[in-house]
Structures are given as C-alpha cells and as structure tokens.
Amino acid sequence: MSHSIIGADRGTHCKILAVALAGVVTLALTGMAAHLGAADIPLAHSGTILRAGTPAMAASAVAPVLR
Questions:
Q1: Are the CB atoms for 47 and 40 separated by under 8 Å?
Q2: Residues 6+ apart with CB under 8 A from 18
Q3: What pLDDT does 18 receive?
Q4: What pLDDT score does 31 carry?
Q5: CA atoms of 12 and 16, how far apart (whole Å)
Q6: pLDDT for res 63
Q7: Confidence (pLDDT) at 56
Q8: Distance of alpha carbon 19 from alpha carbon 25, whole angstroms
C-alpha cells in the first residue's frame, strides 16, 4: 500500500481519478435534479408587490393582519 501520492503507481492514480470523477458527476447530477425540481413548486405569492417604507394595509386583505 502506498501512503504517498508521489510514489503511487499508475493503478492508484487511476483509482483516485475515477473516485474524483464519480464525485463530480454525482454533484452535477444532484444540482441539476434540484434545479429542475424547483421549477415544479408553485410560487406562494399573491401578485402584490410590497416595498420597504411606511407601514400600509391592503384594502382587500382576507386574513387579519398581525403586527
């Protein structure tokens, strides 16, 4: 068993490369799946735009406003 990357043989270098490549592919596929899955979630907003400033209350509020 080789404990140094410098003194490792060709097979050890190939194994390290294969494990690193498998990790990169797994990370990329997980990221792509998470990105595609986020498009299926409906956005939870009512279309009202709120801006920072003085407190205001909407005239068509269905639920009571808690402050």
A1: no
A2: none
A3: 97
A4: 87
A5: 6
A6: 62
A7: 63
A8: 10
40 residue type, one letter: D
Nearest-CA neighbor of 21 among 9, 13, 32, 10?
13
- The CA distance from 9 to 2, in Å, is 8
Residue 43 has what DSSP assignment?
P
What distance in Å separates the CA atoms of residue 19 and residue 24, rounded to the nearest whole number? 9
Contact call for residues 27 and 19 (beta carbons, < 8 A): no
Task: Per-residue pLDDT tens, the chain, 67 aa: give them.
Answer: 657 778 888 998 999 999 999 999 999 999 888 876 555 555 555 566 666 777 666 666 566 656 5
User: What would the DSSP string read from start to end of 49-63?
Assistant: ---SSS----TT--S
Contacts of 57-62 with CB under 8 Å at 24 or more apart are: none
